Amino acid sequence: MLDFMLFITGATGFIGKYLIRYLNKYNEQFCCLVKPSEKDSSNDKFLIDNNAIIEYGDIFDENKVKEIFSKYKFDNVIHLAAIIRSDRIEDFNEVNVIGTKVIVENCERFKINKLIFLSTDFVLYPYRNTYRDTKLDAENILKNSKVNYTILRPTPVYGLDDDKNFITLFPLVKKFPILPAVNCVMQPVYVEDVVSAIMSCLNNKKTDYKSYNLPGGSIVSFKDILKILSDEMGLKRFVFSVPNFIIVPGVRFYEKIVPNPVIHDYQISKWVLNKPLSLDEQKNDFKYSPIDFESGIRKTMKLMGISKKN
Fold it and tell me: What's phi and psi for 162, nearest 5 deg?
């Protein structure tokens, strides 16, 4: 296993928590940057329970981040922190762009061995939104630096405790007997496969200065996804396809009138552009072998206690 100190940002996020559990399971030594507002919170307790070394500070605070890098001997950095949704445009720039710039500058200054950066498959498509644009800016900061990096671009990630992607569909499937579906294909990736990819790229020279897409192990339509969820919940649902020229503006209207929408315009607008992504280079360079969506989501639903199947 690892024999060096890791520095991790975004450790209290969905993917971050899976990574922390993995590292603690194998008794790895790691330090996490945590927002001051999370001190004494349940997230803080989670990190303490998993034997993390915790430093409090904002990722865009140049002096604080430099102080942390000066305090420890970090060999590698895993940069997960990102703003996906916010009412403040400034939040995206502060965390996704300035925060990445600060991390990269300190990786250069302290001669870090490698920086693993978690980006998004949004950057592969021409649909413009603030999240996508700032993540692309962050990638360019890294590519124009002197840091040895690996960029990973996961497709929509799912698993226990996911609060942004397919888990949010469960209430809809449970409530409505008739379900409209956007016409698109997807390759959702199970969260444990993302963590496995991250760990496989550390100390792997094949992945130096490279970017990889990180799709799941199967290609499914959105219609298939709704059918799989319904079947696993033991519910009979009629799922029908709706033309994209109807459903895209429909979701925009829905998002405006519903206080806590489960699907957002930025997701649908990007999904309709999706194209199948290859796994060949990933399998060759770091033996990436993700599970298929049906197996992963069934596993997730059993862990959640909402599966009606044995």
Answer: -65, 135
pTM of this prediction? 0.94
Cα-Cα-Cα-Cα dihedral sign, residues 27, 31, 33, 36 = positive
* Mean pLDDT across 202-230: 97
pLDDT for position 1: 47
Give the pair of three-digit tokens for residue 188: 């959702």
Distance between CA 31 and CA 78 in Å, rounded? 10
Pairing type for strands 30-34 and 149-154 reads unpaired
Please, which pLDDT band fits residue 4 given cuts at 50, 70 and 90?
low
Give CA separation, 217 vs 30, 76, 255, 268, 287, in Å: 30, 28, 30, 21, 13
Residue ranges of the chain that CATH labels 3.90.25.10: 158-188+217-276+291-310
Dist. CA 201–CA 287, nearest whole Å: 10
* CATH classification for the domain delimited by 6-154, as one of 3.40.228.10, 3.40.50.720, 3.30.428.10, 3.40.1260.10: 3.40.50.720
SS3 189: strand
pLDDT tens-place string over residues 234-262? 999 999 999 988 988 888 888 889 888 87
310 pLDDT band, cuts 50/70/90, is: low
CA gap 147, 106 in Å, rounded:
10
Superfamily (CATH H level) for 158-188+217-276+291-310: UDP-galactose 4-epimerase, domain 1 (3.90.25.10)
Dump pLDDT digits (tens) for 26-47: 888 999 999 998 888 899 999 9
Instruction: List, in sequence order, every residue forming a beta bridge with 118; answer none if it has no partner.
Output: 152
E strand map for the chain: 6-9, 30-34, 53-56, 76-79, 114-118, 149-154, 157-158, 178-182, 185-186, 189-190, 210-214, 220-221, 238-242
Helix (H) and strand (E) counts in the chain: 13, 13
The residue assigned the tokens 């990889």 is 212
